[in-house]
Amino acid sequence: MQDSDANRLFPTPEPLLSIFFCYSALVPVKSLSFPSNIPFNVTHEFFLREILLNHHLKQYPPSESYQQSFWKWAIIQLESFTRSNEDAEVDERIYAHYLSLRTGACSETPPNSFITYHWRFPKTHRYPTEEDSYETITLLESRTTIEAGTTGLRTWRASLVLAQYLVQHPYLVNASNVLELGSGTGFIGILVASLQLQTATPTVDRKMPSVYLTDVNSTVLVRCRNNVRLPCNKSSPHPNMQYKSLDWLDSLSGQENLESFFSEAKVDIVLGADIVFDPALVPPLVKTIFLALLPEPTQVAFIALTVRNEETLRYFLDEIGKVLQTEEVTRNNAGSLLLQIPDQVDAELEVKIFKVTRGRDTQSPTNCEELRSILRSI
Ligand SMILES: C[S@@+](CC[C@H](N)C(=O)[O-])C[C@H]1O[C@@H](n2cnc3c(N)ncnc32)[C@H](O)[C@@H]1O
User: Fold this and answer.
1) Which of the residues 59, 73, 100, 167 has an alpha carbon 20 to 30 A from that of 192?
2) Which PANTHER family match (predicted)?
């Protein structure tokens, strides 16, 4: 199977597919359920061929410690079948693999791991996707919420929710210059680049749009670039991926640099996922979004927020509402492969997406002076 081709796993019973998607995304085994109503040979073949011998997962495997708990669980479940069926036997390769994991997988802190997320292109005439095909996004991620003093080394749920929204509204990004604030691991960047490459018809005079991935943390930016460039990701051949160090706090002190960057970048759409978490960062973040939307009246931002603290959300909405127009968008998660994976960190929390624009009264270019005065007041 070529990396660039859509992957296919069907026909496969849904419960087995679900285990495959969960294994790829390192969902703890306590959240998995083993299907008891599927014949042993079907389940066994699936675990052997589609999970253990899977070409992609051999190249980009889940961490050894995760595999250890997964294969222990799988062996117990498969062996329970064999007790009631004399002809059933667990393949030696499954035992051998499990035993090969036992040494060297006992570290206290969970090690970084490859994680593979699954998603599907929307079914439209521009994306002739088959019912049974799916795409992957693979990232090297931290397995803790904070590592090396940053939250940016893992993908947060708000990114998955925003990604699902973009998958359902690909026209927002596929011909647009995109800028992401607080990009973290690069998940959204990979998705946007994949959507752009799927529909792009670059000609001599029509370049591929730019995707600017920005973050304050240099380690995070390096990880982001490495993830975008992984050969298995559809984003890897995108010719216009840009990685830029951008600190929202610069909007308070080095505003001219940010202004000139935003006006040169000619960004059409600004994205941000899980970037509202610290009340102290709300004013600089709001000002950064404002500056990013300043050059063109048609620019728009989509910000996905995990509601951890109602007060912080209210503060953000009050502050941004003073200078920009915000509107919560309606989401539809039906059929999402991304969101069917049980979440481990923000499981119970709501994610909201806000569309942010300059609003009707500041859309006209003649209102530039008005914008400048708003800017001075932030
Ligand atoms: C919770 S993580 C979200 C990462 C990613 N968007 C996601 O959803 O997976 C917050 C991100 O904001 C970045 N960040 C924090 N403070 C920042 C600042 N002052 N300027 C720019 N980025 C910042 C962090 O480095 C981190 O990548």
Assistant:
1) 59
2) HEPATOCELLULAR CARCINOMA-ASSOCIATED ANTIGEN, PROTEIN-LYSINE N-METHYLTRANSFERASE EEF2KMT
pLDDT of residue 202 exceeding 60? no
Cα 62 to Cα 5, 169, 319, 348, distances in angstroms: 22, 31, 41, 25
CB neighbour list of residue 54: distance below 8 Å, 6 or more residues apart: none
Q: Sheet holding 133-141: strands in order across?
A: 7-8, 133-141, 113-119
- Alpha carbon distance 214, 197 (integer Å): 20
**CATH of span 145-377:** 3.40.50.150
Alpha carbon 339 to its chain centroid, in Å, reads 11
- Read off φ and ψ for residue 230, nearest 5 degrees: -55, 130
Task: Give, rounded to a whole angstrom, the gap between the first and last alpha carbons of the chain.
Answer: 53
The winner for highest mean pLDDT among 109-113, 131-135, 353-357 is 353-357
